[in-house]
Amino acid sequence: MNVFGFAGWSGAGKTTLVEKLIPLFTRRGLSVSVIKHAHHGFDLDKPGKDSWRHRKAGATQVLMLSNDRWVLMHELRGAPEPTLEEQLRVLQPTDLVLIEGYKAAAVPKIEVHRAVNGKPLLYPDNPHIVAVASDVPLPDSPLPRLDLDDTPAVAAFILDYLECR
C-alpha cells in the first residue's frame, strides 16, 4: 500500500485538506483509507448506547455492524498504543493510505502550515516532510511549497511523489 502523511500543528487545516483530497483520489479510481492519530482521548460512542455499555462493562473489543457499515472499537485497557506499522497491518489492502498525525513516523508527509497559528515550521527538524502546504510564501524553504488552497496541485504532488518511489 502507498502511505502518505500529513503533519502540522492543531488548527493548520490537516483534516480539511485530507477531506478535500479523498474525493480527488477516489475519482481517479483509487481506494483510499485514512489513519488519524489523536493525542487526546476520543470516543465514537454515546453514553448509554449498547456498544458504550459493552465497553464500559469491560469488553476489550466491540464490533458493531449494520447493512451500511461496521466498526471495530478496541479498548487498550492500559496496553501500549499500537504503532503505525501495527495499525497499517489491520487495514484491508487499499491503493492509498493517508495518515494524519504521526509526526515522527518514517513515511513521506506534507507539512500543513497556516501562518495565523503563529507556530514554527516542523520540516527543519523532521526529515520525513517532503513538502509544505501553506497559505503564505516560504522563501527560505528548501522543500517544495504547495498552495494550501490548491487541492488539485497537492493531490498531483502526492501522486507524482509516490510514482517516483
TrEMBL record:
UniProt domain Molybdopterin-guanine dinucleotide biosynthesis protein B (MobB): residue ranges: 3-135
SUPFAM superfamilies the record matches: P-loop containing nucleoside triphosphate hydrolases (SSF52540)
GO molecular function list: GTP binding
Gene3D superfamilies: P-loop containing nucleotide triphosphate hydrolases
CDD domains (alphabetical): MobB
Pfam families xref list: MobB
Source species of the chain: Pseudothauera lacus
Top-rank taxon, per record: Bacteria
GO BP: any one term: Mo-molybdopterin cofactor biosynthetic process
Gene behind this protein: mobB
Protein name: Molybdopterin-guanine dinucleotide biosynthesis protein B
PANTHER family: MOLYBDOPTERIN-GUANINE DINUCLEOTIDE BIOSYNTHESIS ADAPTER PROTEIN (PTHR40072:SF1), MOLYBDOPTERIN-GUANINE DINUCLEOTIDE BIOSYNTHESIS ADAPTER PROTEIN-RELATED (PTHR40072)
Organism lineage: Bacteria, Pseudomonadati, Pseudomonadota, Betaproteobacteria, Rhodocyclales
